[in-house]
Amino acid sequence: MRLLLLWGLNALALLAVTYVLPSIQVSGIQSALIAALVLGLINTLVRPVLALLTLPLTILTLGLSYLVLNASLFWLAGALLPGFEVSGFIPALFGSILYGLIAWGLSIFIPGKKD
């Protein structure tokens, strides 16, 4: 049940990002749900591998390259999904930061086990 709530809240966070940043577009709630699912899968499966491979660069840049990694994966999701469009790298950077902050803020209100 908690996983479904998190999925729905992540879709709402993605819709909120589209209202703040006009360069990121989601065509509807169904596309937001699919995009939230794909972003979750990318963050679960791809990001740990890439974070490990770029660890020396992350240490060298004091963690700033991790922002670039998150933005690149956000942009990748926009390139893969037809109903979710990210118009460039800078919007992907701000979108990934804003998406993470909104999703984190909404997840506070879900009762149960905290990660």
Question: How are the SSEs placed, and which strands pair?
Answer:
Elements: H1 2-20, E1 24-26, H2 29-45, H3 47-53, H4 55-60, H5 64-80, E2 84-86, H6 89-107
Antiparallel strand pairs: 1-2
Helix pairs in contact: 1-2, 1-6, 2-5, 5-6
Description of the structure:
The chain has 115 residues and is mostly helical. The chain has one domain. Helices cover 74% and strands 5% of the residues. Strands 1-2 form a two-stranded antiparallel ribbon. Helix 1 (2-20) crosses helix 6 (89-107). The longest helix has 19 residues, at 2-20. The protein is globular, with a radius of gyration of 14 Å. 22% of the residues are buried. The mean pLDDT is 93.
**Helical stretch count?**
6
Average pLDDT reading? 93
Which percent bin holds the helix content?
over 70%
So what's the overall shape? globular
Rg from alpha-carbon coordinates: 14 Å
Largest sheet composition: 2 strands, antiparallel
- Structural class call reads mainly alpha
Distance between the ends: 15 Å
Write down the domain tally: 1
Q: Strand order, main sheet: write it out.
A: 1-2
- Strand percentage lies at 5-15%
Which blocks of ≥5 consecutive residues have pLDDT under 50? none
- Number of strand segments: 2
> N-to-C SSE series?
HEHHHHEH
What descriptive keywords fit this protein?
single chain, 115 residues, mainly alpha, two-stranded antiparallel ribbon, 6 helices
